[in-house]
UniProtKB/TrEMBL annotation:
InterPro entries: Atg22-like, ATG22/LtaA_families, MFS_trans_sf. It is a multi-pass membrane protein. Keywords: Membrane, Transmembrane, Transmembrane helix, Transport. The chain crosses the membrane at residues 12-38, 58-80, 92-111, 117-137, 158-178, 190-212, 251-274, 286-307, 319-337, 343-360, 381-400, 406-425. It comes from the Bacteria. This is MFS transporter. The keyword Membrane applies. It comes from Flavobacterium resistens. The keyword Transmembrane helix applies. GO terms for cellular component: endomembrane system. It is found in: Endomembrane system. Its main location: membrane.
Length: 434
């Protein structure tokens, strides 16, 4: 363990390297391999399973499980934020959630319909471990970097995460495409990819832990009831301040509805592609879906740059309105797509608008904040709103998918949310259009 001064290059690089370690979770587990693996389990038995005393469609089941995990995360995030602010050894908390998430990924190796409850538990805990570790990871930024360093090192972390996650996904794709080379089946290759994610996450995070300090305070304060619930008090304070800030309140309404739909589309896209696209074979479907995820990753970078330039020329709010318009059309068109080529085109569009909307939404929120030094509380409110939006979006998607048996209808309903977001964003005063 090294005690390096704030702003030290080694310390900053070690912090950013955690993105390299943990981003494999979001790409392999949340987006690419696990959704394909999960869908493949149902190949010979239809899309339904008897679970929790009900007969549920598989995609609805995973939607509800994801919603439940984000509901827990939205509740514990303020608790963890309060603890992170006051307890000296927050590195221990970060390690706990990191190892919880990583070991849960390893546990997915045993995911099977015969022990569905255990498998769902590992998936559930993996989500909580990933998001829980991020609370403490993000809270380190002001501790280890000066203000003029934070944007640069945060961007470096994002870049490292992108590179690392794509490298591992390409390795996994090679195993899945050529399983005989490794004397395994394609399904076994996917199971091994879950183990590789867990090992990668734990192994590369050690570099981060070696240099990160224990916490922001040399001697942590005693953990009291007030400390634990401090995060909720901060959220309540921000909620009260929103009553007097009409532009920010209106913007948050538009962001909440838009984020609800965007995050839901990205979380269910692979399940949709696996069920609704007419792939010529199971192998083509597996490879095609992973390629689509890679396309999204690549195009997202271009989209982020293009969105940044558009906002500089036309303003943040007009650009966000335009992007939400594209999303609305995207969801409406999704109802009609059936062929692989259709899906590739839609993946390209999704990647382009996804790459810019999240970054622009956060920066717009930052610009609308009142003059205050307590920006952490406002961003905590922002993050919780985003997670609650995911809970609502996934539940709506799951219910429609379960009741109608068609994810197409669920996707089309999401278009309504984008139209609603456009209406709400238009109500932000023109002088606040930034």
């Amino acid at each position: 363990m090294k005690n390096l001064p704030k702003g030290d290059k080694k310390l900053l690089n070690a912090w950013a390297f955690y993105d390299w370690a943990n981003s494999v979770y979001t790409l392999t587990i949340a987006s690419a391999v696990f959704p394909i693996f999960y869908e493949a389990l149902f190949t010979d038995r239809g899309h339904y399973i008897d679970v929790f005393g009900m007969r549920l469609k598989n995609s609805a089941l995973i939607s509800f499980t994801t919603a439940a995990a984000f509901l827990v995360v939205s509740f514990i995030s303020p608790l963890l934020s309060g603890i992170a602010d006051y307890v000296g050894n927050k590195k221990a908390f970060m390690k706990f959630f990191c190892y919880l998430g990583a070991l849960s990924c390893v546990g997915l190796y045993w995911f099977d319909l015969g022990n569905i409850y255990v498998g769902l538990a590992f998936y559930f805990l993996g989500l909580i471990g990933y998001w829980g570790s991020l609370v403490f990871y993000n809270s380190y930024l002001p501790d280890i970097a000066f203000e003029d360093q934070q944007d640069r090192i945060s961007a470096k972390g994002y870049s490292l995460g992108y590179i690392g996650s794509v490298i591992l996904l390409l390795i996994n794709l090679g195993m899945i495409m050529f399983p005989k080379t490794f004397n395994i089946t394609a399904m076994e290759a996917m199971r091994y990819s879950f183990i590789m994610v867990g090992i990668w996450w734990i192994l590369f995070s050690q570099y981060t832990y070696y240099y990160l300090p224990k916490g922001s305070k040399e001697n942590g304060q005693k953990l009291t009831k007030d400390v634990v619930f401090n995060g909720f008090k901060e959220l309540k304070k921000v909620w009260g301040l929103l009553k007097d800030n009409v532009p920010l309140r209106r913007y948050l309404g538009g962001f909440f509805v838009s984020s609800m739909a965007v995050q839901t589309v990205m979380l269910v896209a692979t399940y949709f592609g696996a069920q609704e696209i007419q792939w010529s074979s199971k192998e083509e479907g597996t490879i095609g879906l992973i390629i689509c995820i890679l396309i999204i990753q690549l195009v997202a970078v271009i989209g982020a740059v293009a969105t940044s330039r558009a906002s500089a020329k036309f303003g943040n709010i007009p650009t966000l309105i335009f992007i939400n318009g594209i999303w609305a059309v995207f969801c409406a068109l999704a109802y009609f797509i059936t062929l692989p080529m259709h899906f590739y085109v839609m993946a390209t569009i999704a990647g382009f608008v996804m790459g810019g909307v999240q970054a622009l939404s956060r920066s717009t929120y930052s610009k609308l904040l009142p003059e205050t030094e307590d920006t952490a509380s406002f961003f905590s409110f922002y993050d919780v709103a985003e997670k609650i939006g995911i809970v609502i979006g996934m539940c709506i998607y799951g219910i429609i998918d379960q009741r109608t048996g068609s994810p197409r209808k669920a996707i089309v309903v999401l278009a309504i949310f984008f139209v609603t977001s456009i209406f709400l964003l238009r109500r932000v005063h023109k002088k606040e259009a930034l």
